Amino acid sequence: GKVRLLEAGAFDDIDAVLMIHHMGDETGSAVDWPDGTSLATNGLGFEFFGKPAHAAGDPYNGVNALNAVIQTFEGIDALRQHITMDARIHGIITHGGDAANVVPKYAACSFGIRASFSETAADLAAKVRHIAEGAALVTGCELKVTERDAPYADKRPSYVLGRKFHENMAAAGLDTHKMPKGRMMASTDLGNVSHRAPAVAGYFAISETPIPHHSQQVLDASGSEYGYGQFVKASTAMAWTALDVLLDPAMSKAAWDEHANWLEKYSG
Questions:
Q1: Above 80 in pLDDT, residue 268?
Q2: Where in the chain is the domain with CATH 3.40.630.10?
Q3: 40-147 maps to which CATH number?
Q4: Cα separation of 206 and 23, whole Å?
Q5: In sequence order, which ranges of 89-186 are alpha helices (DSSP H)?
Q6: Which residue of 129, 160, 179, 219 has the lowest C-beta tally within 10 Å?
Q7: What fold characterizes domain 2-38+155-266?
């Protein structure tokens, strides 16, 4: 959503970008590097087209598209030995054939490729694509590649804004003693926005105990009385931070100065 808004000019001529997001049992905003950073991500889909044949009667007349998918996964597993610790490649088989007694004429898989910076993720995605091309060549299949039309960029938080946001979260009654630390091993379209303007997120607990991400526990905690109360406090802190941006030109200038030199200051 934010990438489309960005392309449409919704984030042109603005002072700052603020958002909130639940974070299990942790609360706070990014106050120093690498807190609040996240991974860039590219998406690739591979469709392999082979030739059907009876798996017992005349398998020699078939071209197995599922084999191409399997070869792609095996090639990526080999690639993982040579990628940096921040990188992630994860995928699923979206179609593996239609019947066990028929050589699969069509098979497909989908992958997410992540790394600390957009350029690194793009380079890694190119290697994954080459693996799929090799799998097609080895098995005799034809290959169709679909690229994610809006890759997510790495998030570059404004620590100038983050320190004020964090202060306001405490003032709004949130317990900020247990706060998210380090790089987030996830991706967000706020990353793309953070390349355009000073941006930061405030994260708030919806549970008093740790809960796994993307789980039923998150759904239940989000609708709980405690989760809703936390949401109201986080929203209040975000509004106060927006007001600070409007009323404090010096802070706004400092945020833009930081934004202009973010990579030089924080790329590590």
A1: no
A2: 2-38+155-266
A3: 3.30.70.360
A4: 7
A5: 118-139, 159-171
A6: 219
A7: Aminopeptidase (3.40.630)
